[in-house]
Write a structure and sequence with these properties.
The chain has 334 residues and is an alpha/beta fold. It has helices at 46-52, 123-145, 163-174, 189-195, 228-236, 260-265, 279-290, 311-318; strands at 5-14, 17-26, 35-44, 69-77, 87-91, 106-109, 114-116, 155-157, 179-182, 199-201, 219-224, 238-246, 268-271, 302-306, 325-329. The strands form 3 sheets. Strands 3, 4, 5, 6, 7, 14 and 15 form a 7-stranded mixed beta sheet that branches. Strands 10-9-8-11-12-13 form a 6-stranded parallel beta sheet, sandwiched between helices. Bound molecules: NADP nicotinamide-adenine-dinucleotide phosphate.
Length: 334
């Protein structure tokens, strides 16, 4: 088996810049690890798009195979609790960052990164969610742990047509919240209505330029994937004791704010770091996503792309032109 070859996308660093190509690799090319997995599905996340275009903040050394998400079947395992034939999910940790990731037909990873596929979930469904779904679930979990409940008032989601955003809208609607979706993509408004968003706002509605430290309060909670002045505006427009789950930085990693929302309105900022979230809680969230928080409606809003046709989606995601989730199918040969 060791001299068997498999397909993988490789990102190469050349003197002219970064280039992606489909290559044949051998199992012996993969890093050390207790568990060898035949990947059936992966998904495309913003972080993958950065890694695939040579972002050294995500991936230090190239050549590299991106893919922070993978779902598949265990082929070999030296860990007593993980057996060949078992269906598993690997997201987060270092997968796809500096460890060869899910854009290859095989991965080899430490046992401590592996989550058994919940019984009522398929491998495909797990990648409809992927890191984006796990992150949205973690954000909701932390908001509710901080006291948020549907009777508190409207909850706003920014970057709503993206992976984390669309799943956050769907989860909040499922839990009974009144959801406002902020999106700069009119083409995605139908999708957001299908997900159950009660209100759709353009990005400018959450981009205050008055310089005032506090504005009319609106939101009982927020899930923000955008950062920058959008997050600063959410802080100014949050109700007393509102909580904001801070997930992303697609607009900016900066946060141009004052302390007033915190000291006058008691607003809470909750950090979301899905990559290093502890394993027992990680399994609990996957179980919730497979059962009480399941989102079957996301299937129809997911684009399924074979591995060899993934390339154009990478640039489109960086331009903000993708909607919902993109699942990568590694079961089909071209
Ligand atoms: N903290 C964590 O653990 C964690 C985990 C996963 C992802 N993330 C982060 O969360 C963010 C979203 O990730 P994703 O995978 O959901 O990405 P994505 O699918 O590309 O979605 C991002 C969305 O943000 C909006 N957007 C894009 N550029 C924008 C800009 N310049 N200004 C305002 N809005 C913009 C777009 O939605 P609209 O057109 O609808 O506005 C876009 O669809 C990224 O920063 C990612 O790194 C964090």
């Amino acid at each position: 088996m060791q001299d068997m070859t498999f397909r993988a996308i490789r990102v190469l660093e050349t003197r002219e810049g970064f280039r992606r190509e489909m290559v044949q690799r051998q199992l012996t090319d993969l890093p050390e690890g207790e568990v060898l997995i035949r990947v059936h599905y992966s998904s495309l996340n913003y972080k993958d798009a950065l890694s695939a275009t040579g972002h050294k903040g995500i991936t230090r050394t190239y050549p590299h195979t991106p893919g922070i998400d993978a779902a598949g079947v265990v082929v070999e395992s030296t860990h007593p609790d993980i057996k060949p034939g078992q269906k598993v999910i690997v997201t987060s940790y270092d997968l796809g960052m500096n460890t060869d990731g899910g854009f290859g037909e095989y991965i080899r990873v430490p046992a401590s990164w592996v989550v058994g596929l919940p019984q009522s979930m398929t491998l495909f469904e797990s990648m409809v969610l992927g890191t984006a779904g796990f992150t949205a679930a973690l954000a909701l979990y932390k908001l509710e742990r901080n006291g948020l409940n549907p009777s508190d008032g409207p909850v706003v989601v920014t970057g709503a047509s993206g992976g984390v955003g669309s799943l956050a809208v769907a989860l909040l609607v499922k839990r009974g919240y009144e959801v406002a979706a902020v999106s700069g993509s009119p083409a995605a408004y139908d999708m957001l209505r299908q997900l159950g968003a009660h209100e759709i706002l353009p990005r400018e509605a959450v981009n205050d330029t008055t310089g005032r430290p506090i504005l009319k309060s609106r939101w009982a909670g927020a899930i923000d994937t955008v950062g920058g002045n959008t997050l600063a505006t959410l802080l100014k427009t949050s109700r007393r004791e509102a909580s904001i789950a801070v997930c992303g930085l697609v607009a900016s990693p900066e946060l141009p704010t004052t302390v007033y929302p915190f000291i006058l309105n008691g607003v809470n900022l909750l950090g979301i770091d899905s990559a290093t979230y502890p394993m027992p809680l990680r399994k609990q969230l996957w179980s919730l996503l497979a059962n009480k928080w399941s989102l079957p409606q996301m299937h129809s809003l997911t684009t399924e792309v074979p591995l060899d046709q993934l390339d154009p989606y990478v640039e489109e995601m960086l331009r903000g032109n993708t909607q919902g989730r993109i699942v990568v199918d590694l079961t089909k040969k071209e």
